[in-house]
Each structure stands twice: as C-alpha cells, then as structure tokens.
Recover the amino acids of this structure.
C-alpha cells in the first residue's frame, strides 16, 4: 500500500514512525522464529536493539546447514533493512526546524551529519520503503523458516530411523 505525498511533512514523519514500528514487529517475528530453530534463547535477548537482532538473525541463518534459496534471499534483505532503519533513526532522532530563508530543515542529532532539507516527499518515500520491507520478514517468519524447520526435523527423523535400522532395531 503506497502512501501518496500530500505535502504534509509532519504527517509523513508520522507514517515513518508507524511503518518503522510495523517493520520492527516483523523483525521480532523473524527473530523468534530463528531462536526457535537455533534453540539459543538467552535471558534478555528480547531487550536487544533491533540492529543486534538483525545481526543475530543473519549470523544464525548463515550457520544453518542446507539453507534454502528463499532463506538465502532473505539474508540478502537484512543489510538493506538495517540501512532503512538507520535512515529512520536519523530522521526520528533529528529535529525539524522551519527556516524562513531555506524552508524546513532536518538537523540530525548525530555529530558530524549535516543539516538537510526536510521535505515531505522524502518522509513518504521512506515510509513506503519501510512498509515494503515488512514483506520479506513476514515471508521468512511465516513460511520460509517454518518450512526449513520442518525439513530439518524430517531429515533428523530420517537419520534416526537409518541409525536404528543399522543397529537392528
């Protein structure tokens, strides 16, 4: 669902916040699915920053044996998703000021980042990109990871049956 720029900077900023929250929720679902497969839940993992969770997801999936093509495709989405969330951080944690000479200006909260024009179309573009970035996460958590886990469990079961037949059981 693409949102059209109506020229309202603050409304666009609101969509950035809302759609980033939806994306983070989708990442949380992937994170939970990965933990279920890896079995490595440790205390306070749920409190990790989203960037740390993305790193954990990528590293865990890269360590899985016989990873599927659809999971390999998802892994390639992780870095761009992290970049989108970084862009979101610059906007959300920055400040927007009206400058009578140049128009609205975004002053990033991070040292060393220059002021940039605050334009509604940039907000809507980022909001739409954040919304679209949910899709690979949802596909991974709802379909790709469960399929991988079922195949892995099925193969583990077959290995057990072969071992049992060798032993004469």
């Amino acid at each position: 669902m693409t949102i059209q720029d109506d020229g309202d900077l603050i409304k666009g900023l609101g969509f950035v916040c809302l759609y980033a929250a939806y994306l983070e929720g989708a990442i949380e679902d992937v994170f939970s699915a990965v933990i279920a497969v890896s079995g490595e839940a440790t205390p306070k993992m749920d409190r990790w920053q989203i960037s740390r969770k993305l790193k954990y997801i990528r590293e865990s999936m890269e360590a899985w044996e016989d990873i599927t093509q659809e999971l390999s495709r998802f892994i390639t989405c992780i870095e761009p998703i992290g970049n989108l969330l970084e862009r979101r951080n610059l906007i959300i944690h920055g400040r927007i000021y009206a400058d009578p000479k140049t128009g609205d200006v975004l002053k990033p909260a991070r040292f060393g980042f220059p002021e940039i024009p605050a334009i509604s179309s940039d907000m809507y573009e980022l909001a739409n990109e954040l919304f679209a970035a949910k899709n690979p996460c949802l596909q991974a958590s709802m379909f790709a990871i469960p399929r991988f886990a079922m195949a892995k469990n099925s193969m583990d079961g077959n290995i057990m049956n072969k071992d049992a037949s060798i032993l004469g059981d």
